[in-house]
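REQUEST FORM: STRUCTURE PREDICTION
Request ID: SP-0412
Submitted by: Lab K.M.
Chain count: 1
Length (residues): 193
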Amino acid sequence: MSDYEFYKDRSKKILSEKRFIHSVNVSVASEKLAVRYEADVDKAKIAGLLHDICKEMNEETLTKLLSEADFEIFNAFKGYPLKLYHGPAGAVYLQKEFGIDDKEILNAVCFHTTGHANMTTMEKIVFVADYISEERPFDNLSELQALALKNIDLVVLKKCETTIEKFKGTTIPVHPYTLDTYNDIKRPATKSQ
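STATUS: Completed
RESULT:
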């Protein structure tokens, strides 16, 4: 059994059917993007598959896992909405429970919701794959999927813009890492125009 099949079997036992289907779809999208951007396909498939491994865990478990994260990560996420915890908590969980110590996989899982400045190709792949996975209800999904294969940075920007717009006018702050991601990608695009 390959590592991927092993992780797929384990995650199927942890996640709800809906979350598992989403995770498999993100893995498929990650694989396509990894081929296109010449990243490690096996790592992309695994990171995509496991990106939401902690998504359905309760507040107590997520908070405990987050408290075991790197100090900088812990401080960056503490106090923000609980739904953001599952990325960094997932990275901790994958180290502890799955024995994964590959930094590319762990960082892609950690930052798949917020992003951060200077994202690696692998981090962008999972960040975007989560946004364009097959079951997403966007009217323009096929256009986003095609765009991701042409210019991944434009879809990173689109995901950030969607998040920023979603929280505009609410009391929920946009995570600074998402703003950093947006500004980091936007800056070179602006310079080249």
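NOTES: The chain has one domain: 3-191.
Reviewed by: T.R.
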